[in-house]
Amino acid sequence: MRLSGLGVSPGIGIGKALVFKRGARDLRFRIPPGRVPRELERLAEARRRSREQLQQIRQRIATSAGAEHAYLFDAQLLMLDDAMLIERAADIIRSEHLNAGSALERALAEISALFDQAEDAYLRERQGDVGDVVGRLCMNLRAGGDPLELFRDVEGPLVLVADELTPSVIAQLDWQRFAAFVTDAGSWTYHTAILARSIHVPAVAGLRDASVLIAPGVLLAVDGATGDVFVDPDPAELDHVRARQQRRQAYEQSLDEYRRLPPVTADGVQIRLEANVESPDDALRAREAGADGIGLFRSEFLLAGGGYAALTETAQFDAYTRLVDSMSPGRVTIRTFDISEAQLPLQHPGNEGTRAPLGLRGIRLSLAMEDMFQAQLRALLRAAAHGPLRIMFPFVSGVEELRAARGAVIRATETLRSRGETVPPVSIGVMIEVPSAALTADLLAEHADFFSIGTNDLIQYCLAVDRTDDRVSDLYEPLHPAIVRTLRLVARAAKRRSIPVSVCGEMAADPVVLTLLVGLGLTEFSMAPTAIPLAKQALRRLRAQDAVTVAARAIRARTAAEVEKLLVDFVSSDEPAGAKQNVEG
Q1: How far apart are CA 277 and CA 212, in angstroms?
Q2: Are the CB atoms for 535 and 511 separated by under 8 Å?
Q3: Of residues 226, 314, 241, the one with CA closest to residue 3
């Protein structure tokens, strides 16, 4: 079987399927033979817990509503002893080496098929009761600890297949064990896709029902460039995919020489290329890729799996210091937490669960939670004593928020000085990622030391396109005339106030679009470490003065297609003979 989706992280990955569903709450995978007794113990423990819970529920219902209403739970208690459910699941674990959750789902499917054949409507309706029991059993399987720990001893390499894969889940994984990621949802600018490119893991998104069609443990071959996923490939298909893998590796090796070369255009314009990273350990990868510094450290990734302890000043100071020390003498720009209230690893008044993405997020959440914000700012200011560090605020919409954030920095500074600590000068910047910030960039520039244009969010909010929805991904147009003009507006506002401005997002990682950005006068860019060698190659072939000419024409274009044609024609005509490489075969 061959599935086709959207290739969002180039490369080839071959491995056994590990299926995540419902945000990693439902894990399906094959286990090694030695793991069978432990999995049977987990199933028995889940049944014991489920029995206790159902008995308590039955008693409560009988007491409050009468014994005649408790009969439903008598039926569910009997189901826990039915050989068609628990014993069948145990047989599947023993014979097929599936984990307990997968085995229960298989047993449920078999029982449901029998109910579907029943002529009695009452019997058909009992499917819901069986599903409820299986749901409770799976819940109690998860209650035994971190679900991500369950497959630590599963032999790799693995391909992670998920209905939806969040960055917080990826951040907790051992990336070295995964050959590829495959998701039902997502698009090129989905946060998970961006992270996959950053850690150099092939990925395909937008497959809609891959997590349903792909069985746990089956061999997968994933092409992150074309979007092809081969399920249980035959020898000929495997040979084809491996040949593509070798060509991809050869192409990437051909870029190695650019890692050590400075980013400068053919006519001598100096460019600064920095890396976007999620972990202090990523600084080494950034240096190896030839980055001048860290242009974006996503500090919220420190919270993934860390709970409340990750929010403390000490924990954050240790992480930021390690990052600064690892990147020294390069500059490090750290973005304060860009999360929503529902993503916080703690409960607080007002955190009532998931809210709209345009609610308390980014700087708004930080300003609303003074203690949390102050702890982060103190950790950042202390870490700045170890090397060049800049603080950047996300999701700023206007001058009032920036003034309030700068006031918070002053309070954190005063607290540290009262403790006898020396606080060095630290540059304060904002991410320009919402239309209101872009349109008032001239006003924000009066209070900011630098700008970083967050093109991923800026594009989706300017064009009213949800970048996580593959159904409208074709409307996400980085080269839309509105975006091109907005970029010029921000660049000019920064230039008038003589403050640095960088482009941080997927636009900067595209060699064709990079031509436009240089032509607009932008000379600082931040991207995934893996994109830096290719960006250097493109820059060293580009004459900045020629880029200015083509950018002037792009500003006058009426559609994204016209802008794209201008840039592609320019790059194609300017490319040296033999430079084009069909790395995908």
Answers
A1: 32
A2: yes
A3: 226
Question: d(Cα 260, Cα 257) in Å, to the nearest integer?
Answer: 6
Task: Name the phi and psi angles at 394, rounded to 5.
Answer: -90, 155
Task: Give me the residues of the chain with pLDDT under 50, please.
Answer: 24, 347-355, 576-585
pLDDT single digits (tens) 278-297: 889 899 999 999 999 999 99
Q: How far apart (Å, rounded) are the C-alpha atoms in residues 111 and 122?
A: 15
Asked whether 450 and 499 are in contact (CB, 8 A), the reply is yes
Q: Which residues are catalytic?
A: 191, 504
Find tokens 């960039």 and name the residue: 441
Is the distance from CB of 43 to CB of 100 less than 8 angstroms? yes
Please give the radius of gyration of the chain, using alpha carbons only, rounded to the nearest integer: 27
pLDDT at 543: 96
- Residue 222 contacts residue 242 (beta carbons within 8 Å): no
Return d(Cα 274, Cα 252) in angstroms, integer: 19
Helix (H) or strand (E) holding 108: helix 100-117
For residues 275 and 334, give the distance between their C-alpha atoms in angstroms, rounded to a whole number.
Answer: 12
**Residue 6, SS3?**
strand
Q: What tokens were used for 189?
A: 């600018």
CA distance 196 to 211: 18
Three-state DSSP class for 578? coil
127 CB burial (10 A radius; 0-12, 13-18, 19+): middle
Percentage helix, strand, coil for the chain under 3-state DSSP, each rounded to 5: 55, 15, 30
Contact (CB, 8 A) for 457 and 436: no
Residue 235: cis peptide before it, omega within 30 degrees of 0: no
Q: What is the pLDDT of residue 356?
A: 54
Per-residue confidence (pLDDT) for residue 55, from 0 to 100: 87
User: What is the distance between the alpha carbons of residues 386 and 203, in angstroms, rounded to a whole number?
Assistant: 36
CA atoms within 13 A on the CB side of 42: 24
pLDDT in tens, 558-568: 999 999 999 99
